Rieske 2Fe-2S domain-containing protein
Amino acid sequence: MTREENDLVTRVGPGTPMGTLMRQYWVPALLSSELPKPDCDPVRVMLLGEKLIAFRDSLGRVGLIQNHCPHRGASLFFGRNGDCGIRCVYHGWQFDIHGNCIDMPNEPNESDFKRKVKALAYPCVERGGLVWAYLGPRAELPPLPDIEVNQLPEGECAIVPTMLECNWLQAVEGEIDTSHSGFLHFGSIQPDDVAEGTFLHYTVKDRAPRYSVVDTDYGVMYGAYRPARPGYTYWRIAQFMFPFFTQTPEGILGHHVITNAWVPMDDYHTMAFIMIRKDPREQAWPGRHPIQGNADKYPTVQTPVLPNTSEWFGRFVSAVNATNDYGLDRARQRNGTDYSGIPYLPAQDRAMQESMGSIYDRTQEHLAVSDVMVIRVRRRLLAAARALAERQVVPPGVDCPAVYRNRSGSIILPEGADWIQATKELRQAFTDHPEVLLQQP
Amino acid sequence: MTREENDLVTRVGPGTPMGTLMRQYWVPALLSSELPKPDCDPVRVMLLGEKLIAFRDSLGRVGLIQNHCPHRGASLFFGRNGDCGIRCVYHGWQFDIHGNCIDMPNEPNESDFKRKVKALAYPCVERGGLVWAYLGPRAELPPLPDIEVNQLPEGECAIVPTMLECNWLQAVEGEIDTSHSGFLHFGSIQPDDVAEGTFLHYTVKDRAPRYSVVDTDYGVMYGAYRPARPGYTYWRIAQFMFPFFTQTPEGILGHHVITNAWVPMDDYHTMAFIMIRKDPREQAWPGRHPIQGNADKYPTVQTPVLPNTSEWFGRFVSAVNATNDYGLDRARQRNGTDYSGIPYLPAQDRAMQESMGSIYDRTQEHLAVSDVMVIRVRRRLLAAARALAERQVVPPGVDCPAVYRNRSGSIILPEGADWIQATKELRQAFTDHPEVLLQQP
Amino acid sequence: MTREENDLVTRVGPGTPMGTLMRQYWVPALLSSELPKPDCDPVRVMLLGEKLIAFRDSLGRVGLIQNHCPHRGASLFFGRNGDCGIRCVYHGWQFDIHGNCIDMPNEPNESDFKRKVKALAYPCVERGGLVWAYLGPRAELPPLPDIEVNQLPEGECAIVPTMLECNWLQAVEGEIDTSHSGFLHFGSIQPDDVAEGTFLHYTVKDRAPRYSVVDTDYGVMYGAYRPARPGYTYWRIAQFMFPFFTQTPEGILGHHVITNAWVPMDDYHTMAFIMIRKDPREQAWPGRHPIQGNADKYPTVQTPVLPNTSEWFGRFVSAVNATNDYGLDRARQRNGTDYSGIPYLPAQDRAMQESMGSIYDRTQEHLAVSDVMVIRVRRRLLAAARALAERQVVPPGVDCPAVYRNRSGSIILPEGADWIQATKELRQAFTDHPEVLLQQP
């Protein structure tokens, strides 16, 4: 990758090619629960390099408005939220969720200046616990993507937000890199530690899977495969969906419902929203962490989170971070309790992604067979950003919400089976599946 | 305002047009009390982007000398102050308040190198508790400005210093913006909360005053007016005086003596010196905060200050600052105790000024009728800086100390009166006034 | 000095002229004791502007390898050290001390990609408690310099490491500047405080010595001289040795064995390694601090050190530093306990060197007679860097380890003696000296 390509694919501020690409899509901005009720406290939100203030108005609608009051620039974070708008406390100018100035009480009655003043405000909609925002140019808004986990009935989806101190693409690349699981996460687990017949048994028995990668209408899909019991192949199937969504191959294909959003706050910070269907059956599945024979060897899935502050990067900061080397414990690393010595699974990923630096210099890397998915996703991103910039080509999925109806997961197929054909139905979201057998053939 | 104008009007380092303008004037550098006695500890002073060391010599004279020893650059902050000079502890070179090297003990006796070495040192004078410095080019020093509050007999003037973390112009603009008082400071107060006939009653009864702005020989003056009782008009009269002084309209015109200096430490930090005449009668005046019926609704005027440190920006830092959102209390904001939820009046101002960012991007603003004073002051500053840079025009007031003899304040005049004529005598500083009636007509 | 020369002589990153010069030499990278045993924890090392990971492999050999894994850039600091290599925990790639990729377990067995991947790794050797690294271009390594103190039998050399927050040249210049001792360190000591006949007596009796400076094959040597008892001269003899070594004149010439390395971590941080022969006889010598009549007047030689952290600049940070003004105690300064008020000798030096700023702007200085050694060393550095850049001239000492065989120290010679001839033998390292008389003639 050239330095120019690296810049192009990573930078997302206003006016950049990748920033313009992302602004074609709805983007998750914050949790609905961060604005718990009408007229509650505003929240500082950094999104795609823009400083914004989120608020919920008296009717319960969410507004996402420029930080600086259009008048003389005081922060609207200090604003009074009420009467269907946020009111700057400097001179009392009030704005509704559309950015209209609906009151300008320090001006003479006869003035109509307030009609000429408009704050930058982005349309927001809420679904499944997320506030989605549209920072793009269209007057007629595009549809929300048909992401299954985000459309589950209330209470069926868990969302885990975490702030990452690195560029969004490092986070995405970490997610679509299935190869690292057998090392970073499960490198200490030996085949004998895990019951024969489980996914994890095959994962740790062969840590160098092969890959099949295909371009799709929503982005890129891969199947990583290795031998299962004689005559069968173990497949891990996962997706990258434009512009920054990933679906992971953990869990049973057809049963597992997960989508992760890696939303750029700016070029150097990323807000991760892990969205997963709560599924008691999956928890009990013997091939998945953390329920295994030797539970000590499995990294903890939940990391402690620091209390939110009102700083721009003060939301959902992990207590396990670069300042404490992610809890690195060399004794655990040495004695094999953890391969990495980092006892929290998500922190293992962050340690890798953040230690690359704020924006990794990809001119220095050496990509291998296992990076075929990473390579393909970069190509698609670059191609889409260039096509939009040069030929105004609408990027994948913007006008086709249905392409997001995908599931990821693991499955065991007969050797030689066409994985794409064989899994077509199980990868389809929003269908009523018959009961899936928990013990795969 | 264009980006170029914004840069020109805000930046004050050596060689910048506005920095050159400010260097035509005497500028308040620190408090006399920061150097309490001869040969006391030196103080780090950042002024107009220059790192300086202030010290009081054995004769009680104040020196303001370059931070880096002219020899090899060690900081003179560590210097030994005594024997009528500050002595670098590296090699013992000693400098007097004029910057002369008066001892060079590590050189051979026959050397006269010390006559060739001169430290940058700025002339200082003390008056009214302030140390004034002249950082300009003239060998024959200009006169000090005739600022009344700074010439009161000892003990009659209170000086409140505070460090602001933003560009000086944001502070000045906040001060000359009388419109915000009715919102940021008194937005929670209703007319019925305040006795009829008081200034504050009219202020909160009509929060959209009209403005009359006039250019003067010292800068700009405004009168903001709104109806008082029938047949009368309530006037708030205040001044901007070159290059960064303001006088506020609180208090009774003719009685109220106040001047505020907003001294640039560098482009991103400002030292405010609020200088006000201690006046027991004024405190009792029923039209002024904080003595009112419902005292709970008045913001606290004094903010707690952190202990000084010896860092460059470690003097007079408010404990109520950006790191704690200026003590923002959403419950107080919501229940109307404070309009802003910030319980300290000066912190309310700083929250607005600092939240604009270090240097606000004025290309983004939307100025209204109430900003007419702000607009005029900018124009005068830009014009003066350009006239100096392009045609060597001496800026307003430099050679005319008497133009600073002004008072600001509030007054109630008959409807239709010419405010400038009617207040001419009351606005004149240094006169012996007859007793002013505390209850205005 | 011009700004260009100042940049040229101070900056040491890859590709800079001075950085290229330094890369011709072996440089001390860390202490052997920082890697106490085979397969111990890796250490982050910043060296000449490069982020590196030091580790000791299973055979006890030290590796110094690029921080970012050549694969996708995760930090090798988190790596598993064992089996004769460091293994990235992201995908298990393992590298030996030569940078060879010796295992790539996530690739298919048939892949030979690992032969194509090589990490940047610098050769290291250990001697006398130091790990030396060679960051230069030669395939055939140059010899280590014959620095005596680094070749003493185990246990006879003490190494004191300290991190300095300034450019390396400020540290070097502080060391070769013998003039400051009589002020910064001993300015409070009067001749009567010290026994007649001791070195220190003469030092404080005449604080403006003369200088004789000579270019040598290893760098520059000076002799600073002043009167001793009638008919004799007190000489302080010290060296600068390419590229950043100094030897100090404290102690008895012929007896005193010391070399200090001022190793650039980057342009703004320096790691000092003070290497000194432990010598019980020297401690008792009455002419040296700290054993004197009035012990209170001598600054403490050891400063407290903060616990190491795993940050890039987290090793050997003094607890007495800029954040606390180096323990400055104005009362001690004022009452003459310490000339500087800083009670620790090394902190006195750091206060001067660091307060010049990260990289001092040498266009502002005024060099005097006492700076003749500083001037000469700069010239030699500039000349050597330019000769290398322009004419590929191998810099002094690179191929001639024997030129480093020097001792520094103090001596009293008959008036008019040729100091160079008279001290030739005593300055020679590695010789068996007859017993040196502790009381000089």
Notes: Residues 219 and 380 of chain C are 7 Å apart (CA to CA). The two ends of chain C are 42 Å apart (CA to CA).
